[in-house]
């Protein structure tokens, strides 16, 4: 009986470790922002991609205070819009 309990605990801990690791991995993402010319948010004038997976970013065009997230993707893939 003790052996069965040890196996059950071992399986539970393994599952918790895998779940915890995958959750932490999914917490990082690639975010895409669009910058707009004014508060009407009608004309895109720049973009920024922030890759939290590699701790890098790319910016092009004009950066303004008027921005929105227009896309995101987890480090493991799977685009969300």
Task: Offer a few descriptive terms.
42% strand, alpha+beta, single chain, 1 helix, 31% helix, 81 residues, 5 strands, five-stranded antiparallel sheet
Short summary of the structure?
This protein has one helix spanning 2-26; strands spanning 29-36, 44-51, 56-61, 67-74, 77-80.
Helix content: 25-40%
State mean pLDDT (0 to 100 scale). 78
- Regions with pLDDT < 50 over 5+ consecutive residues? 16-26
> Could you tell me how far the N terminus lies from the C terminus, measured between alpha carbons in angstroms?
51 Å
Q: What kind of sheet is the major sheet?
A: 5 strands, antiparallel
Tally the helices: what do you get?
1
Rounded radius of gyration (Å): 21 Å
Q: Decide which structural class fits the backbone.
A: alpha+beta
**How much of the residues is beta strand, in percent?**
35-45%
How many strands appear in the DSSP assignment? 5
Strand order of the largest sheet: 3-2-1-4-5
Tell me the overall shape: elongated
N-to-C series of helices and strands:
HEEEEE
Describe the 3D structure.
It is elongated and about 70 Å long. It is of the alpha+beta class and 81 residues long. Helices cover 31% and strands 42% of the residues. The relative contact order is 0.19.
């Amino acid at each position: 009986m003790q052996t069965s309990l040890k196996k059950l605990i071992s399986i539970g801990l393994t599952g918790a470790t895998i779940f915890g690791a995958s959750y932490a991995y999914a917490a990082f993402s690639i975010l895409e922002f669009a910058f707009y010319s004014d508060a009407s948010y009608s004309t895109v004038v720049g973009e920024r991609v922030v890759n939290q997976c590699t701790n890098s970013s790319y910016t092009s065009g004009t950066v303004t205070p008027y921005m929105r997230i227009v896309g995101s993707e987890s480090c493991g893939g799977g685009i969300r819009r």
